[in-house]
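Structure in, sequence out. Go:
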């Protein structure tokens, strides 16, 4: 029974080696010559004038989440568009409902001012 899992274990092991080997080889073989200029914080050529842990405006997170939500729409539309001709009317109706709900959500966010950046 356990011999059935051998290909999976080999696959995981090869994936780990391919993922970790370049990092280890780069660390071992790459040049390491740190100095104060290389280790200093960089912010567009200026000295850092603010703490890096400053709070972001909530609107930044809101816009990012909205982008992810509406970007996922495309992820659902591509497979559907590939097999569009083989689908029947129920699938077309389901995609219409999906797009309608997404449009209603977008209009709601627009009316609430979530897309405004002042």
């Amino acid at each position: 029974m356990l011999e059935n899992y051998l290909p999976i274990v080999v696959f995981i092991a090869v994936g780990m080696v391919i993922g970790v080997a370049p990092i280890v080889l780069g660390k071992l073989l790459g040049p390491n010559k740190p100095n104060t200029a290389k280790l200093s914080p960089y912010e567009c050529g200026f000295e850092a004038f603010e703490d890096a842990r400053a709070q972001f405006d909530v609107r930044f997170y809101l816009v990012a989440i909205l982008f992810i939500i509406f970007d996922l729409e495309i992820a659902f539309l591509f497979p559907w568009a590939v097999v569009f001709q083989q689908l029947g009317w129920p699938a077309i109706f389901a995609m219409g409902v999906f797009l309608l709900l997404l449009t209603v959500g977008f209009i709601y966010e627009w009316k609430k001012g979530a897309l405004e950046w002042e």
